[in-house]
Amino acid sequence: MLESIDAVISGETTLAELEGLTAAEAYAIADFGWTMLGQGRIEAAAAIFESLTISNPRHAYFHALYGSALQKLGDVEAALEAYARALAIDPDETGALVNRAELLLGSETCDSDEVTELLGRSLSADPEATRPETRRARVLIAAIAADRLSPEEADRAVV
């Protein structure tokens, strides 16, 4: 038992691996959480996504989903941290890139260079904009270029 705990602490294994949770099962749980998020059950979705980040800390997608739920809950700082964790694992995680850019764009201390860099990276990762978040990135880039997006509009951007 102690060897297992030490392996989790050292990063040699994850709780999901220890418990036998497969990637397919974890993604099915994430899909359920996404459904809950879509139904407005944000706290429940956040709990699901948080549990996935704890059991699968090396999966950027789960951190990005957790960030989305936190963003919808209005916890900007925690959402930014979740997106940063996702991007530390996978610098091309498009959901984290675009959602982080949206949050920064809506902040009082907006770093326009970082916003532009994040949105550009999302489009580099998905140049055809096949994902909803990269389609949002295109719209945000166009709005920024046209200087039509106010911080208030950015706050209301769909996650």
CATH fold annotation of the largest domain: Serine Threonine Protein Phosphatase 5, Tetratricopeptide repeat
Tell me the overall shape: globular
Number of strands: 0
**SSE arrangement, N to C:** HHHHHHHHHH
Mean pLDDT: 84
How far the N terminus sits from the C terminus, by CA atoms, comes to 41 Å
Structural class: mainly alpha
Summarize the helices and strands and which ones pair or pack:
Elements: H1 2-10, H2 15-19, H3 23-38, H4 42-55, H5 60-73, H6 76-89, H7 94-105, H8 112-125, H9 132-145, H10 151-155
Helix pairs in contact: 3-4, 4-5, 5-6, 5-7, 6-7, 7-8, 7-9, 8-9
Characterize the structure shown.
This protein is mainly alpha-helical and 159 residues long. The protein folds into two domains: 1-88, Serine Threonine Protein Phosphatase 5, Tetratricopeptide repeat; 91-159, no CATH class. Helix content is 74%, strand content 0%. The protein contains ten helices and no strands. The mean pLDDT is 84.
Entry keywords:
Serine Threonine Protein Phosphatase 5, Tetratricopeptide repeat, mainly alpha, 159 residues, 74% helix, globular, 2 domains
Structure summarized in a few sentences:
The protein is mostly helical and 159 residues long. It has helices at 2-10, 15-19, 23-38, 42-55, 60-73, 76-89, 94-105, 112-125, 132-145, 151-155. Helix 5 packs antiparallel against helix 6 (76-89) and helix 7 runs parallel beside helix 9.
